[in-house]
Design brief:
Belongs to the DXR family. The chain is an alpha/beta fold. The chain contains 17 helices and 11 strands. It has a 7-stranded parallel beta sheet with strand order 4-3-2-1-5-6-7, with helices on both faces. It has a 4-stranded mixed beta sheet with strand order 9-8-10-11, with helices on one face. Helix 2 links the parallel strand 2 and strand 3. The chain binds NADPH dihydro-nicotinamide-adenine-dinucleotide phosphate (NDP), 1-deoxy-D-xylulose-5-phosphate and manganese (II) ion (MN). The site of NADPH dihydro-nicotinamide-adenine-dinucleotide phosphate (NDP) has 29 residues, from helix 1 and helix 10.
Length: 385
């Protein structure tokens, strides 16, 4: 039977790659519902090709424009409620959660509660609300399958293994575009330089997170929740080639790794076809041509965001939510050209240090912490502009 997909963020980098996987396997997957932000052109093309039953965009005007431009009738919705309607569409069995940022949490949680299997790209969902999300998934008996390349690698390495025999996991990090830059040069980094990821083609927000290494910090927290590991069992290793996507070390010292060319279609398809594998058209990895792989320790002095994420994750409560909310505001401002690159770590650091942590927060308390973090980040940015 075909898997029936709802896709949040269908016009983004992960969304487009997801639909390419569907295109390669029309006998395996069917598109039921799509949600996007403002990219009318791309959504029109997707609706014409995949004929979803429901589409949503961030505004009514945008989705009405799509409706007018497509050849067959399609039901439309919009805004935050539209995201949840798409995520919980009764005909869909599987949600690809690929919005960017904290707006992914609510619809992903709703899909879990509606019993959908989740293919999770939106790491912010687990950073903000990991405890609640994992608890709800357990209650609903729902699988959360990682799409993030490192977590997919770990998931693949853990297949048929006993989780209690894991000593630690090692998340590989490219080091981003500033990997070899001295601190003074990083301080003057431009938007274009931050978006110039050495190995992966991704959306703007995650590209900036990779440049600050906050992405790896968010991934440490994501791994904590997905694999139930303590923070001292999660290590980060700089691996400039991004060929080894991550590793698991077992109690006997054996290391398993997943390798491949940097292509998100591989982890996306693994999450969609799980537990089977399907053929995929992708560039094969030529190890002879590659010749060598390189590794080094991350430099936490040049990239303090990684340490901040470890600390926030370990402290728990509402701190990871604050880390995430302040980071989103600071990255958005940097992308708009309104502040220098190091302001990201300053704003996040300031918000974390001022926050009064709430232990075991409920959903309302998480939303309040997120609101507070954003407000605090905006104040910090205003003070320094
Ligand atoms: N890209 C990658 O290779 C990887 C991404 N991830 C994670 O996956 C998630 C998505 O990343 P990525 O695909 O790169 O991001 P993109 O910026 O490329 O795409 C984001 C998607 O979210 C949509 N969106 C934005 N704002 C809204 C809104 N207000 N309402 C509805 N939809 C909205 C965009 O719509 P529109 O374009 O129409 O405005 C787009 O479809 C992130 O959490 C990221 O960390 C994880 C691993 C790898
Ligand atoms: C493709 C993917 O999963 C990204 O999260 C990627 O890992 C970012 O690269 P960095 O290793 O530079 O953060
Ligand atoms: Mn990743």
């Amino acid at each position: 039977m075909k898997k029936r997909l709802a896709v949040l963020g269908s016009t983004g980098s992960i969304g487009i790659n997801t639909l390419e996987v569907v295109r390669q396997h029309p006998d395996q997957f069917e598109v039921i519902a799509l949600a996007a932000g403002g990219n009318v052109e791309e959504l029109v093309k997707q609706v014409e090709e995949f004929k979803p039953k429901l589409i949503s965009m961030s505004s009514k005007d945008a989705v009405e424009e799509v409706k007018l431009r497509v050849s067959d009738p399609v039901r439309t919705t919009y805004g935050e409620e539209g995201l949840t309607e798409v995520a919980t569409h009764p005909d869909a069995t599987y949600l690809v959660s690929a919005l960017v940022g904290s707006r992914g949490l609510v619809p992903t949680l709703a899909a879990i509660q509606a019993g959908k299997t989740i293919g999770l790209a939106n790491k912010e969902t687990l950073v903000m609300g990991g405890a609640i999300v994992m608890e709800e998934a357990k209650k609903a008996g729902v699988d959360i399958l990682p799409i993030d390349s490192e977590h997919s690698a770990i998931h693949q390495c853990l297949h048929r293994e006993n989780p209690s025999q894991v000593r630690r996991i090692i998340l590989t990090a490219s080091g981003g575009p500033f990997r070899d830059w001295p601190r003074e040069k990083i301080e003057d980094a431009t938007r274009e330089e931050a978006l110039n990821h050495p190995n992966w083609s991704m959306g703007a927000k995650i590209s900036v997170d990779s440049a600050s290494m906050m992405n790896k910090g968010l991934e440490v927290i994501e791994a904590h929740w997905l694999f139930g590991l303590s923070y001292d069992q999660i290590d980060v290793l700089i691996h400039p080639e991004s060929i080894i996507h991550s590793l698991v070390e077992f109690v006997d010292g054996a290391l398993l790794a997943e390798l491949g060319t940097p292509d998100m279609k591989v982890p996306i398809q693994y999450a969609l076809s799980n537990p089977e594998r399907l053929p995929l058209r992708t560039d094969p990895l030529d190890l002879v041509k590659l010749g060598a792989l390189h590794f080094r320790e991350p430099d936490l002095k040049r990239f303090p965001c990684l340490q901040m994420a470890y600390d926030a994750g370990q402290a728990g409560g509402t701190l990871p939510t604050v880390l995430n909310g302040a980071n989103e505001v600071a990255v958005e401002r940097f992308l708009q050209g309104g502040s220098p690159f190091p302001m990201i770590e300053e704003v996040v650091g300031e918000a974390l240090s001022r926050h009064k942590v709430v232990r075991d927060p409920n959903l309302e308390e998480l939303f309040e912490a997120d609101r507070w973090a954003r407000e605090t980040a905006r104040q910090c940015l205003k003070k320094t502009s």
